[in-house]
Protein backbone atom coordinates (compact mmCIF):
# COMPACT_ATOMS: atom_id res chain seq x y z
CA UNK A 1 0.00 0.00 0.00
CA UNK A 2 1.40 3.43 -0.93
CA UNK A 3 2.19 5.92 1.84
CA UNK A 4 -0.48 8.49 2.57
CA UNK A 5 0.17 11.97 1.15
CA UNK A 6 1.08 14.60 3.72
CA UNK A 7 -0.29 18.14 3.89
CA UNK A 8 -0.21 21.01 6.37
CA UNK A 9 -3.97 21.54 6.22
CA UNK A 10 -6.74 19.28 4.94
CA UNK A 11 -10.10 20.92 4.29
CA UNK A 12 -13.21 18.78 4.02
CA UNK A 13 -15.88 20.45 1.88
CA UNK A 14 -15.85 22.78 -1.12
CA UNK A 15 -18.60 25.26 -0.19
CA UNK A 16 -17.92 28.89 0.76
CA UNK A 17 -16.42 27.90 4.15
CA UNK A 18 -14.06 25.31 2.66
CA UNK A 19 -13.07 27.41 -0.35
CA UNK A 20 -12.28 30.43 1.84
CA UNK A 21 -10.30 28.26 4.27
CA UNK A 22 -8.38 26.88 1.27
CA UNK A 23 -7.66 30.39 -0.03
CA UNK A 24 -6.33 31.56 3.34
CA UNK A 25 -4.28 28.40 3.96
CA UNK A 26 -2.69 28.21 0.53
CA UNK A 27 -2.01 31.94 0.43
CA UNK A 28 -0.18 31.54 3.78
CA UNK A 29 2.00 28.94 2.01
CA UNK A 30 0.49 25.98 3.84
CA UNK A 31 0.43 22.80 1.74
CA UNK A 32 -3.32 22.56 1.42
CA UNK A 33 -5.66 19.79 0.26
CA UNK A 34 -9.34 20.47 -0.43
CA UNK A 35 -11.55 17.37 -0.41
CA UNK A 36 -14.97 17.69 -2.05
CA UNK A 37 -17.38 14.82 -2.60
CA UNK A 38 -19.67 16.44 -5.13
CA UNK A 39 -19.89 19.89 -6.73
CA UNK A 40 -17.66 22.89 -6.01
CA UNK A 41 -19.70 25.57 -4.26
CA UNK A 42 -21.66 23.11 -2.09
CA UNK A 43 -25.27 24.08 -1.43
CA UNK A 44 -24.40 27.67 -2.42
CA UNK A 45 -24.09 26.41 -6.03
CA UNK A 46 -27.83 25.63 -5.97
CA UNK A 47 -28.81 29.22 -5.12
CA UNK A 48 -30.32 30.91 -8.14
CA UNK A 49 -29.61 34.42 -6.90
CA UNK A 50 -27.39 35.59 -4.06
CA UNK A 51 -28.06 39.24 -3.38
CA UNK A 52 -26.53 39.55 0.09
CA UNK A 53 -22.87 38.66 -0.54
CA UNK A 54 -20.92 41.92 -0.16
CA UNK A 55 -19.26 43.37 -3.22
CA UNK A 56 -21.80 42.13 -5.76
CA UNK A 57 -24.23 44.95 -6.43
CA UNK A 58 -26.14 42.73 -8.88
CA UNK A 59 -27.34 39.35 -7.62
CA UNK A 60 -24.90 36.57 -8.49
CA UNK A 61 -25.72 32.93 -9.21
CA UNK A 62 -24.39 30.64 -6.45
CA UNK A 63 -22.66 28.43 -9.01
CA UNK A 64 -20.76 31.42 -10.43
CA UNK A 65 -19.74 32.65 -6.99
CA UNK A 66 -18.48 29.13 -6.16
CA UNK A 67 -16.41 29.04 -9.38
CA UNK A 68 -14.89 32.44 -8.60
CA UNK A 69 -13.95 31.32 -5.07
CA UNK A 70 -12.48 28.12 -6.52
CA UNK A 71 -10.38 29.98 -9.11
CA UNK A 72 -9.16 32.42 -6.47
CA UNK A 73 -8.04 29.60 -4.13
CA UNK A 74 -6.41 27.74 -7.04
CA UNK A 75 -4.22 30.75 -7.83
CA UNK A 76 -2.40 30.00 -4.57
CA UNK A 77 -1.84 26.30 -5.28
CA UNK A 78 -4.57 24.39 -3.45
CA UNK A 79 -4.54 20.66 -4.26
CA UNK A 80 -7.80 18.75 -4.75
CA UNK A 81 -9.29 15.34 -4.17
CA UNK A 82 -12.78 14.59 -5.42
CA UNK A 83 -13.98 11.93 -3.03
CA UNK A 84 -15.96 11.40 0.16
CA UNK A 85 -14.42 11.28 3.60
CA UNK A 86 -15.06 8.02 5.41
CA UNK A 87 -13.38 8.78 8.73
CA UNK A 88 -10.64 10.65 10.57
CA UNK A 89 -8.12 9.10 12.99
CA UNK A 90 -5.88 10.97 15.40
CA UNK A 91 -2.34 9.81 16.18
CA UNK A 92 -0.49 12.42 18.26
CA UNK A 93 -0.63 15.60 16.22
CA UNK A 94 -1.23 13.67 12.96
CA UNK A 95 -4.77 13.38 11.65
CA UNK A 96 -5.31 10.70 9.02
CA UNK A 97 -8.28 11.45 6.79
CA UNK A 98 -9.55 8.27 5.14
CA UNK A 99 -11.40 8.77 1.86
CA UNK A 100 -12.81 6.66 -0.96
CA UNK A 101 -9.52 7.06 -2.87
CA UNK A 102 -6.95 6.78 -0.09
CA UNK A 103 -5.58 8.33 3.09
CA UNK A 104 -4.25 11.85 3.61
CA UNK A 105 -2.36 13.09 6.68
CA UNK A 106 -2.07 16.60 8.17
CA UNK A 107 -1.68 18.19 11.59
CA UNK A 108 -4.68 20.44 10.92
CA UNK A 109 -8.08 19.50 9.51
CA UNK A 110 -10.89 21.97 8.79
CA UNK A 111 -14.34 20.39 8.65
CA UNK A 112 -16.50 22.39 6.27
CA UNK A 113 -18.77 19.66 4.93
CA UNK A 114 -22.00 21.65 5.18
CA UNK A 115 -25.40 20.10 5.55
CA UNK A 116 -27.95 18.00 3.74
CA UNK A 117 -31.60 18.72 3.15
CA UNK A 118 -33.94 17.36 5.79
CA UNK A 119 -36.54 14.88 4.55
CA UNK A 120 -40.22 15.01 5.45
CA UNK A 121 -40.31 11.28 6.12
CA UNK A 122 -43.80 10.75 4.65
CA UNK A 123 -44.96 7.90 2.37
CA UNK A 124 -44.13 8.52 -1.30
CA UNK A 125 -41.37 11.10 -0.66
CA UNK A 126 -38.51 8.68 -1.26
CA UNK A 127 -40.23 6.63 -3.97
CA UNK A 128 -41.13 9.71 -6.05
CA UNK A 129 -37.87 11.65 -5.61
CA UNK A 130 -36.70 12.49 -9.13
CA UNK A 131 -40.23 11.82 -10.42
CA UNK A 132 -41.85 15.04 -9.23
CA UNK A 133 -40.35 15.28 -5.74
CA UNK A 134 -37.33 17.59 -5.71
CA UNK A 135 -35.08 19.19 -3.11
CA UNK A 136 -33.68 21.84 -5.47
CA UNK A 137 -35.76 24.28 -7.53
CA UNK A 138 -32.64 25.78 -9.13
CA UNK A 139 -31.62 22.35 -10.41
CA UNK A 140 -35.04 21.07 -11.45
CA UNK A 141 -37.15 24.20 -12.10
CA UNK A 142 -37.25 23.92 -15.92
CA UNK A 143 -38.86 20.45 -15.68
CA UNK A 144 -41.94 22.07 -14.13
CA UNK A 145 -42.80 24.58 -16.87
CA UNK A 146 -46.56 25.26 -16.82
CA UNK A 147 -47.11 22.68 -14.07
CA UNK A 148 -48.77 23.05 -10.66
CA UNK A 149 -46.26 22.59 -7.83
CA UNK A 150 -46.02 22.94 -4.06
CA UNK A 151 -43.12 24.02 -1.88
CA UNK A 152 -43.11 22.63 1.66
CA UNK A 153 -41.63 24.75 4.48
CA UNK A 154 -41.72 28.26 5.92
CA UNK A 155 -38.05 29.29 6.03
CA UNK A 156 -35.79 31.27 3.70
CA UNK A 157 -35.09 28.10 1.76
CA UNK A 158 -38.80 27.49 1.02
CA UNK A 159 -39.50 31.05 -0.12
CA UNK A 160 -36.38 31.16 -2.28
CA UNK A 161 -37.53 27.92 -3.91
CA UNK A 162 -41.08 29.26 -4.37
CA UNK A 163 -40.05 32.56 -5.99
CA UNK A 164 -37.62 30.73 -8.26
CA UNK A 165 -40.01 27.98 -9.37
CA UNK A 166 -42.73 30.55 -10.09
CA UNK A 167 -40.65 31.59 -13.17
CA UNK A 168 -41.56 28.19 -14.64
CA UNK A 169 -44.67 26.75 -12.96
CA UNK A 170 -48.24 27.86 -13.68
CA UNK A 171 -49.09 27.80 -9.95
CA UNK A 172 -47.05 27.49 -6.75
CA UNK A 173 -48.54 26.56 -3.37
CA UNK A 174 -46.40 27.14 -0.29
CA UNK A 175 -47.54 24.67 2.37
CA UNK A 176 -46.44 25.48 5.91
CA UNK A 177 -47.24 23.71 9.17
CA UNK A 178 -47.82 26.97 11.10
CA UNK A 179 -49.58 30.29 10.40
CA UNK A 180 -46.40 32.41 10.32
CA UNK A 181 -43.07 31.92 8.63
CA UNK A 182 -39.52 32.10 9.88
CA UNK A 183 -38.30 33.43 6.51
CA UNK A 184 -36.97 37.01 6.46
CA UNK A 185 -39.48 39.79 5.73
CA UNK A 186 -37.84 40.69 2.43
CA UNK A 187 -38.42 37.14 1.14
CA UNK A 188 -41.96 37.02 2.55
CA UNK A 189 -42.85 40.33 0.84
CA UNK A 190 -41.46 39.04 -2.46
CA UNK A 191 -43.51 35.82 -2.20
CA UNK A 192 -46.72 37.60 -1.11
CA UNK A 193 -46.40 39.94 -4.10
CA UNK A 194 -46.03 37.07 -6.59
CA UNK A 195 -49.42 36.43 -8.24
CA UNK A 196 -48.59 32.78 -8.95
CA UNK A 197 -47.85 31.96 -5.27
CA UNK A 198 -50.60 31.01 -2.78
CA UNK A 199 -50.14 29.93 0.83
CA UNK A 200 -51.70 26.97 2.60
CA UNK A 201 -51.23 27.54 6.34
CA UNK A 202 -51.32 25.22 9.38
CA UNK A 203 -51.03 22.24 7.12
CA UNK A 204 -48.89 19.11 7.14
CA UNK A 205 -48.18 16.80 4.25
CA UNK A 206 -49.29 13.27 5.13
CA UNK A 207 -48.31 11.56 1.85
CA UNK A 208 -47.05 12.16 -1.67
CA UNK A 209 -48.96 10.02 -4.16
CA UNK A 210 -48.77 9.07 -7.82
CA UNK A 211 -48.42 5.96 -9.97
CA UNK A 212 -45.22 6.76 -11.91
CA UNK A 213 -44.85 10.42 -11.02
CA UNK A 214 -46.29 12.86 -8.48
CA UNK A 215 -50.06 13.30 -8.92
CA UNK A 216 -51.29 14.58 -5.57
CA UNK A 217 -50.52 15.45 -1.95
CA UNK A 218 -52.56 14.28 1.00
CA UNK A 219 -52.78 17.14 3.47
CA UNK A 220 -54.03 17.65 7.01
CA UNK A 221 -54.90 20.92 8.71
CA UNK A 222 -53.22 20.73 12.12
CA UNK A 223 -55.76 23.08 13.76
CA UNK A 224 -59.04 21.62 12.46
CA UNK A 225 -57.89 18.08 11.66
CA UNK A 226 -59.52 18.41 8.22
CA UNK A 227 -57.92 16.26 5.54
CA UNK A 228 -57.69 17.29 1.89
CA UNK A 229 -56.10 16.37 -1.42
CA UNK A 230 -54.12 18.73 -3.67
CA UNK A 231 -53.66 17.69 -7.30
CA UNK A 232 -50.26 18.73 -8.69
CA UNK A 233 -47.21 17.57 -10.62
CA UNK A 234 -44.29 18.76 -8.49
CA UNK A 235 -43.27 18.97 -4.83
CA UNK A 236 -40.23 20.91 -3.60
CA UNK A 237 -39.27 19.99 -0.06
CA UNK A 238 -37.46 22.78 1.82
CA UNK A 239 -37.83 21.92 5.50
CA UNK A 240 -34.33 22.70 6.71
CA UNK A 241 -30.88 21.24 6.85
CA UNK A 242 -29.08 18.48 8.72
CA UNK A 243 -25.29 18.82 9.24
CA UNK A 244 -23.07 16.20 7.54
CA UNK A 245 -21.33 14.88 10.63
CA UNK A 246 -21.96 11.12 10.74
CA UNK A 247 -18.26 10.33 10.24
CA UNK A 248 -17.26 12.68 13.11
CA UNK A 249 -19.17 11.03 15.96
CA UNK A 250 -16.83 10.19 18.82
CA UNK A 251 -14.06 12.35 17.33
CA UNK A 252 -15.31 15.86 18.15
CA UNK A 253 -18.16 17.21 20.29
CA UNK A 254 -21.46 17.34 18.40
CA UNK A 255 -24.60 19.14 19.59
CA UNK A 256 -28.07 17.49 19.81
CA UNK A 257 -28.85 18.72 16.24
CA UNK A 258 -25.77 16.95 14.85
CA UNK A 259 -23.69 20.13 14.39
CA UNK A 260 -20.01 20.40 15.42
CA UNK A 261 -19.42 22.48 18.55
CA UNK A 262 -16.66 25.10 18.18
CA UNK A 263 -15.38 28.11 20.06
CA UNK A 264 -14.97 31.50 18.40
CA UNK A 265 -11.63 30.39 16.89
CA UNK A 266 -13.55 27.59 15.08
CA UNK A 267 -11.64 25.09 17.25
CA UNK A 268 -13.39 21.85 18.16
CA UNK A 269 -12.56 20.08 21.42
CA UNK A 270 -9.96 18.08 19.49
CA UNK A 271 -6.71 20.09 19.02
CA UNK A 272 -5.94 20.72 15.35
CA UNK A 273 -9.50 19.99 14.18
CA UNK A 274 -11.61 23.01 13.21
CA UNK A 275 -15.14 23.39 11.85
CA UNK A 276 -16.54 26.16 9.64
CA UNK A 277 -19.82 27.03 7.94
CA UNK A 278 -23.18 25.21 8.09
CA UNK A 279 -21.65 22.15 9.75
CA UNK A 280 -20.90 24.21 12.86
CA UNK A 281 -23.30 24.63 15.79
CA UNK A 282 -25.05 28.03 15.86
CA UNK A 283 -24.11 28.83 12.28
CA UNK A 284 -26.46 31.44 10.81
CA UNK A 285 -26.00 29.64 7.47
CA UNK A 286 -25.16 32.55 5.23
CA UNK A 287 -22.54 32.51 2.49
CA UNK A 288 -20.75 35.46 4.03
CA UNK A 289 -20.60 33.96 7.53
CA UNK A 290 -19.44 30.60 6.13
CA UNK A 291 -16.62 32.45 4.35
CA UNK A 292 -15.78 34.25 7.61
CA UNK A 293 -15.71 30.95 9.52
CA UNK A 294 -13.41 29.47 6.87
CA UNK A 295 -10.96 32.37 7.14
CA UNK A 296 -10.98 32.19 10.95
CA UNK A 297 -10.41 28.43 10.97
CA UNK A 298 -7.52 28.72 8.50
CA UNK A 299 -5.83 31.49 10.48
CA UNK A 300 -5.99 29.50 13.74
CA UNK A 301 -4.91 26.32 11.94
CA UNK A 302 -1.75 28.13 10.75
CA UNK A 303 -1.11 29.30 14.32
CA UNK A 304 -1.56 25.73 15.61
CA UNK A 305 0.91 24.38 13.03
CA UNK A 306 3.54 27.07 13.67
CA UNK A 307 3.37 26.44 17.43
CA UNK A 308 3.84 22.66 17.04
P1 LIG B 1 -35.09 26.63 8.26
O1 LIG B 1 -34.87 28.09 8.36
O2 LIG B 1 -34.64 25.74 9.38
O3 LIG B 1 -36.64 26.41 8.01
C1 LIG B 1 -37.18 25.13 7.90
C2 LIG B 1 -38.67 25.26 7.69
O4 LIG B 1 -39.21 23.97 7.49
C3 LIG B 1 -39.39 25.87 8.89
O5 LIG B 1 -40.40 26.73 8.45
C4 LIG B 1 -39.96 24.65 9.60
O6 LIG B 1 -41.19 24.89 10.23
C5 LIG B 1 -40.22 23.72 8.46
N1 LIG B 1 -40.14 22.33 8.84
C6 LIG B 1 -39.12 21.69 9.50
N2 LIG B 1 -39.39 20.38 9.64
C7 LIG B 1 -40.60 20.18 9.06
C8 LIG B 1 -41.42 19.05 8.89
N3 LIG B 1 -41.05 17.84 9.32
N4 LIG B 1 -42.60 19.21 8.26
C9 LIG B 1 -42.99 20.41 7.80
N5 LIG B 1 -42.26 21.54 7.93
C10 LIG B 1 -41.06 21.42 8.56
O7 LIG B 1 -34.42 25.99 6.97
P2 LIG B 1 -34.12 26.61 5.52
O8 LIG B 1 -35.25 27.42 5.04
O9 LIG B 1 -33.65 25.47 4.68
O10 LIG B 1 -32.91 27.53 5.80
C11 LIG B 1 -31.76 26.97 6.41
C12 LIG B 1 -30.81 28.08 6.74
O11 LIG B 1 -30.26 28.62 5.55
C13 LIG B 1 -31.46 29.21 7.52
O12 LIG B 1 -30.57 29.62 8.51
C14 LIG B 1 -31.65 30.24 6.48
O13 LIG B 1 -31.66 31.55 6.99
C15 LIG B 1 -30.48 30.01 5.54
N6 LIG B 1 -30.84 30.43 4.19
C16 LIG B 1 -30.63 31.74 3.88
C17 LIG B 1 -31.02 32.22 2.66
C18 LIG B 1 -30.85 33.67 2.34
O14 LIG B 1 -31.46 34.16 1.42
N7 LIG B 1 -30.07 34.40 3.08
C19 LIG B 1 -31.59 31.38 1.73
C20 LIG B 1 -31.78 30.04 2.05
C21 LIG B 1 -31.44 29.59 3.32
P3 LIG B 1 -41.27 25.76 11.58
O15 LIG B 1 -41.05 27.17 11.17
O16 LIG B 1 -42.64 25.46 12.07
O17 LIG B 1 -40.19 25.19 12.48
Automatic annotation (TrEMBL):
Presence of keyword Nucleotide-binding: no
Entry EC no(s): 1.8.1.9
InterPro entries assigned: FAD/NAD-bd_sf, FAD/NAD-binding_dom, Ferredoxin-NADP_redctase_2, Pyr_nucl-diS_OxRdtase_2_AS, Thioredox_Rdtase
UniProt keyword list: Disulfide bond, FAD, Flavoprotein, NADP, Oxidoreductase, Redox-active center
Domain of life: Bacteria
The reaction(s) this protein catalyses: [thioredoxin]-dithiol + NADP(+) = [thioredoxin]-disulfide + NADPH + H(+)
Cofactor: how and how many bound: Binds 1 FAD per subunit.
A molecular function (GO) term: thioredoxin-disulfide reductase (NADPH) activity
GO biological processes: removal of superoxide radicals
A GO term from the CC aspect: cytoplasm
PROSITE patterns with a match to the protein in the record: PYRIDINE_REDOX_2
Domain (FAD/NAD(P)-binding): residue spans on this chain: 7-294
PANTHER family, alphabetized: THIOREDOXIN REDUCTASE 1-RELATED-RELATED
Sequence similarity: Belongs to the class-II pyridine nucleotide-disulfide oxidoreductase family.
Subunit note: Homodimer.
Name this polypeptide is given: Thioredoxin reductase
Designated gene of the protein: trxB
Amino acid sequence: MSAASRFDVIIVGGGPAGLTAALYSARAKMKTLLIEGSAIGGRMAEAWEIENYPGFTEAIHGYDLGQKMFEQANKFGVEHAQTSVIGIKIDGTDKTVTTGIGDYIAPAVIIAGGSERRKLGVPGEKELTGRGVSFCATCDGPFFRDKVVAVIGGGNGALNEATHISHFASKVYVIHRRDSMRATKVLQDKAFADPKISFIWDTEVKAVEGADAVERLKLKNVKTGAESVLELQGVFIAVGLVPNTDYLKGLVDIDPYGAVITNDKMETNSPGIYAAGDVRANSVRQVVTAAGDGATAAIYAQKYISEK
